[in-house]
Design goal:
By secondary structure, this protein is α/β, with parallel strands linked by helices. The protein is built from eleven helices and 15 strands. The radius of gyration is 20 Å and the shape is globular.
């Protein structure tokens, strides 16, 4: 199989995760990394046994780089994407795509003009429980999905995630993008396109930020179904799970991963079936799976499995939720900033 040469832009936690995820792929290989922080860049280059370039423009000019993995902070996603598209290099960009719709549109337009693929790192589509819920929702036995609830609860921005840019919504997109881009995308993955958004929330514990640390986001979908995301960075006891009700049955997933990971499902006229985390275990980690899926699509000339349109939709719903929290009104989509 042909191998694509990968160049990583941004060598922090997410850049290192993407590089490590691509390490053993048979369709791609990291050949260079780039970061303005030379210490981080050299450290990742040494770990990956590849080259380091301080200037990502120089990296994009290399003949052995066909794909850019962009893992800079969200407000710095647009410029590297535009540069890659101009250089004829395919783009895989971490979520959130950009904190603004103008930024998302600039990325999409540049990649279309440059004739390169644009994929977004909404990795939950490649996690085992998320994927199983999707399979059950669209398999036919449970009927049309009508109500999805998801909660993702945490306690702030400490540890390896501490960074001043995460405290500003203009740079990170706030919790609803920097964290919950995944859950918002998951709701679309299960329920389809959104029609309107209504949200309530506030800032209660994380006073150093300029965005809500608690949000309840209600979404109405074009299929007539509804969904709710409970987002929190103000929870001393965390959690990550939810449930899906369909017209002919239900799925309960108390935890997406960890020792309590797994799910249960039942038709109204059938017995309950439990699927444990071990039964859903994958041979390949989700980050490797998402990069493999993107690279294989590029090699085949197919559209990426998670597109720029998907990334933009998650940003649009988050922005509509912020506007709803601010105004107390339901926001119909499409949303205009």
């Amino acid at each position: 199989m042909a191998k694509l040469g990968l160049g990583v832009i941004g060598c922090g936690n997410m850049g290192a995760s993407l590089a490590e995820g691509a390490r053993n792929l048979d369709c791609a290989q990291v050949v260079c990394v780039s970061d303005v922080d030379g210490e981080k860049g050299h450290a990742l280059a040494s770990k990956m046994s590849c080259d380091y370039e301080a200037d990502y423009q120089a990296m994009l000019a290399r003949e052995d780089v066909q794909v850019a993995l962009i893992a800079t902070p969200p407000f710095l996603h647009v410029d590297p994407t535009l540069a890659a598209a101009q250089a004829g290099v395919h783009v895989f960009c971490e979520k959130p795509m950009a904190p603004t719709l103008d930024g998302c549109d600039a990325m999409i337009n540049a990649c279309e003009k440059g004739g390169v693929a644009l994929g977004i790192g909404l990795v939950c589509r490649f996690h085992a429980v998320h994927r199983k819920v999707r399979d059950l929702a669209h398999g036919g036995d449970l009927g049309m999905p009508v109500c999805l609830t998801v909660h993702r609860l945490g306690g702030g921005w400490g540890g390896i995630w501490a960074a001043t840019w995460r405290e500003a919504r203009a740079k990170s997109g706030g919790t609803l993008m920097e964290v919950n881009a995944h859950e918002i995308d998951f709701t679309r993955f299960i329920m389809g396109e959104a029609e309107s958004v209504f949200a309530v929330g506030g800032q209660f514990v994380q006073k150093e930020t300029d965005f809500p640390d608690v949000a309840l986001v209600s979404i109405r979908f074009k299929n007539g179904g509804v969904g709710v995301l409970h987002s929190s960075q103000a929870s001393a006891i965390g959690g990550y799970g939810g449930r899906l009700d369909c017209v002919s049955g239900s799925v309960v997933f108390p935890s997406f991963w960890g020792r309590d990971g797994g799910l249960r499902y039942k038709r109204y006229d059938g017995d309950e079936t439990a699927v444990s985390a071990s039964e859903l275990a994958q041979d390949e980690n989700p980050v490797s799976r998402e990069i493999r899926a993107f690279c294989e699509a590029v090699l085949r000339g197919d559209a990426p499995p998670v597109s720029g349109a998907d990334g933009r939709a998650a940003v649009e719903i988050a922005l509509a939720a912020y506007r709803s929290i601010e105004t107390g009104e339901s926001i119909r989509l499409p949303f205009e900033e």
